[in-house]
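Write out this protein's structure.
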Amino acid sequence: MIVYIDVLIAVNFLITYFLLTASSVIAGYTYSRKRILIASLTGALFCLYIFVPAGNIFVDLSVKTASLLLCAVTAFGRTNVKKLMIQTGCFIILNILLMGMVISVSEKSSAVYHNNMFFYININPVILVTASAGIYLSVIFFSAVKEKISPDKVYHADIIFRDFSITDIGAFYDSGLKIKDIISNKDVILLSFEKVSLKLPEMLKNDVYNFLKGKYTDVKTVFVPVFFNTITGEGIIPSLKAEKIIIEGTVINNVLIGFVNNKLSENVTAIFGTDIKKQL
């Protein structure tokens, strides 16, 4: 069979992309499309190993394993070991299932060729693009459905400041939260002042209270003012830079903590947006 490099790379790029995306969806984690695109390109370039003459099965297995692990680390990151292991496991299982299907089909069709655990599909570009678009839309659809039907999850969080900490609180992901510091572009996690006031140093507690009441002349703490403008109104949120945030074991740096008057729900003390969620 004549193997065209452009088709080979394109097919493997798309397949790797969908497998990585599907792994994240199955594992129940959000994903970075940019990281998955880079990982997919890496996997597509590894497929050139198909041109190496068939040799030792252990060498082929080592190359295939290395390509899978490199793609997984590139796509899913390595800051959260548990998350990486779960998503990588899903990715490896999907690859094994796909390879089994490819080997089975290749025995009955001349359109599929495999060598060294990589494969080539002789397919019409129009069919390839159409099928890829269909799979992509299916993944997005089921991901959206899963997001809608999943119960609201309360995340365990610890917030560490330089001189004190606010630990063992419940945090909620709000996809509609878009507040950022317009100067530093840092993400902002909103904290219910009412629920954490007893955990704050006395001076800070008084300053937050005065700031929220508009008594700015009585405030001694140097806050980072975060401006917001929503359909319910506009204003300024008194914020402080946290040393680090730990949400479900994942450490997140360079985040501002904004104090608000919202009571939130019974088990929720803080809320965060999509950019924070992507790091979990």
